[in-house]
Amino acid sequence: MATKKAKAAPAAKPAKLFDKILIANRGEIACRVIRTARRLGIKTVAVYSDADAEALHVREADEAVRIGPAPTAESYLKVDAILAACKQTGAQAVHPGYGFLSENAGFANALEKAGIVFIGPSMKAVAAMGDKIESKILAQKAGVSTVPGYLKPIKDGEECIAVCRKIGYPVMIKASAGGGGKGMRIAWNDAEAREGFRSATNEAKSAFGDDRVFAEKFVEEPRHIEIQVMGDRHGNVIHLNERECSIQRRHQKVIEEAPSPFLDAKTRAAMGAQAVALAKAVDYSSAGTVEFIVDRNRKFYFLEMNTRLQVEHPVTEMITGLDLVELMIRSAAGEKLPIAQKDVKIDGWALESRVYAEDPLRNFMPSIGRLTRVMAPEGRAGIRVDTGVYEGAEISMFYDPMIAKLVAYGKTRAQATERMAAALDAYVVRGVNHNISFLAAIMHHERFKAARLTTGFIAEEFKGGFHGRTLDDSTRSILVASAAVIHRRVRERDIGISGQLKGHEAQIETDFVVRLAGSETRVAVDFTGGTYHVKADGETTELTTEWRPGVPLFECLVDGAPACVQVAQAGPGYSLFHAGCLVDAMVTSPRVAELNRLMPARRESDTSKFLLSPMPGLLKAVAVKEGQEVKAGEELCTVEAMKMENVLRAERDGTIAKVHAAVGESLAVDQKIVEFV
Q1: What per-residue confidence (pLDDT) applies to 180?
Q2: Which of 16-30, 165-179, 433-447, 460-474 has the weakest average pLDDT?
């Protein structure tokens, strides 16, 4: 293994804590742990695969050790390589982050045998709670409310159907060693139970090396609410209140918040007491999360316990003022918890948005490539950005496509939501597709603002997928005025740098036509007293800005209210983003607009005869062959991307003319897989 040169030593560490810890993870969580360790005066060791050689966590750690090639099974899941890195660098303890080996009892056991401290709970707790079947049995014994289900590994598809019938549809099929939404399927009938069993077992085996699945009743109109617990090695366990994680897509959390807008004090106390009871039943001694499903009547059921730090832990930190990573490190070093249950407060409100490299307009398919421009909204009031990337970094097909966790804090939920919406407007990410427009659309959604949340929110409110937020009158007015002023400032720049004959200087136009989202608006732009006066549809908007051409953020005051519009050149026009709306704008003279209306519409190429790969990924299986007749809805192939299996189906009846891709082939976006007659 190659070791990168160590950085300068940090300030002296407090007594009793470790001299050096290794972070057995990557990305934003590795950077997050490094940040706290640095504040505590503890040196850090990063580990990296070949794909992560220039990653941010490698740059920020004091030392970095290569542990293998890009595939996780040959690097981040390789226990021997992690142990060797610890011995090579003298790391006294390991923080596992989340995912990878964070809930692997064998890993914790191997560290203990090597005399290295696991910054997490005991092996007993990891083993007991890491197995979703065993954890439910333990929860029942501890008096924790559990969802009705079949708590044994299901052998095959036929047994899965029998189990689901006995429980009663709808049923959730879940990987026993699962987490992060992987290895989970909802079945509403026998056919979906059979296919759900197959997909869940395949995903579970690929992601966790354990293909066992079980089944439990799917609670309709559910809210996903979890309790953060923290324990030490002296038998003390407390809870740090709850997080609402109901905004999910494909069982993966999208928006999290703390506290929950649904819980009352009585329910919060009851859920917290059960979470603590379960933690004490397994002698819990670190940060952990007890997840519950809550119905419309606030009746709650235990789902699982995650024996690690959660992705969404920052919202808890924001409302409690506690550093969960620090508490984990101190607990692992043998210190007692510095606070008791009575000391835990709720101060304000926090929201977290998970910013991912994915295309929300194409069913959220992962996007890979180089981040050519990144401008995070750090430094704004109440805003925190946890990230593991930087401008110029690569989003790889091998790992989770998270770009960052954007966190907004406010004294009230409304203030936190407003700050989040403004921060999303100002978050510039280019080079890959991303979900910022979707996150912003949620912030502006009336149902979200009213906190009428369930885990079905996205499926119910964005039926047929996300197609962009519909422009309302207010947003349209801001974008029209912004487009007109942007274009005028570009013209001012162009005229200022162009050679001109004296007496024949070009004049700045004042009349424009703004074509935006399929409609045209005639505008007049006057600049007096440092303010642009934009007249459109009989109304005048006053806009002030210091924006210069080439700057990605058009920050301005619109009638005295702050607004931020992302702007990029798009051919002869501009691509604008504001309040969840991504639109193309064309600003021309009235005469050019008149001529443009005479231009024939561009004809799109016909791809209806092909099944194209909707994402970059690995072709895992092809279920058809040339000459075969298929019916609408029939499976054609399976593509694996970011450890998730995606089954592609026929949209209509037809006959297979040719199969263009082979099993095991790495696919690019829009690559031909199957051709129809």
Answers
A1: 64
A2: 165-179
- What's the rounded Cα separation, in Å, for the pair 433 and 368? 8
Q: What angle do CA 231, 236, 237 make, to 5 degrees?
A: 50
Strand 365-366 relative to strand 394-395: parallel, antiparallel, unpaired? Answer: unpaired
Question: Torsions phi, psi of 96, nearest 5?
Answer: -90, -5
> Residue 471's CB: how many other CB atoms inside 10 A?
21
Q: How far apart are CA 141 and CA 144, in angstroms?
A: 7
How, if at all, do strands 93-95 and 63-68 pair? unpaired
| Other C-beta atoms lying within 10 Å of the C-beta of residue 628 | 13
Which domains occur in the chain, in start order?
Answer: 3-119 (3.40.50.20), 136-146+222-347 (3.30.470.20), 148-217 (3.30.1490.20), 355-443+455-467 (3.30.470.20), 473-496+508-596 (3.30.700.30), 610-676 (2.40.50.100)
Question: Which stretches of 78-220 are DSSP H helices?
Answer: 79-89, 105-113, 123-130, 132-141, 157-167, 190-208
Q: What's the DSSP call for residue 613? A: -
Residue with tokens 């990168």: 4
Cis peptide before 590 (omega within 30 of 0): no
Helices (H) and strands (E) in the chain, counts: 17, 40
Alpha helices in 282-427 (DSSP H): 313-320, 324-332, 413-425
Q: What is the pLDDT of residues 105-152, one digit of tens each?
A: 899 999 999 999 999 999 889 888 877 778 888 998 999 998 888 878
Residue with tokens 């040719």: 658
Residue 474 amino acid letter: S
Sign of the C-alpha dihedral computed for residues 247, 250, 253 and 254 taken in this order: negative
The dihedrals phi and psi of 495, each to the nearest 5 degrees, come to -70, -35
Give the DSSP letter string of 615-653: SSEEEEEE---TT-EE-TT-EEEEEEETTEEEEEE-SS-
Give the tens place of pLDDT for each residue, 66-86. Answer: 999 999 999 999 999 999 999
Beta strand 358-359 pairing with 287-294: unpaired
**Phi-psi group of 643: left, alpha or beta (phi > 0 → left; psi -120 to 50 → alpha; rest → beta):** left
Catalytic residues: 304
**Long-range CB pairs of 130-136, under 8 A, 24+ apart, other chains included:** 130/103, 130/104, 130/105, 130/177, 130/307, 131/176, 131/177, 132/174, 132/175, 132/176, 132/177, 132/178, 132/214, 132/304, 133/176, 133/212, 133/214, 135/304, 135/305, 136/216, 136/302, 136/304
For 595, residues 6+ apart whose C-beta sits below 8 A from its C-beta are none
Section 24-45 average pLDDT: 98
Burial category of 415 from C-beta neighbours within 10 Å (exposed 0-12, middle 13-18, buried 19 and up): middle
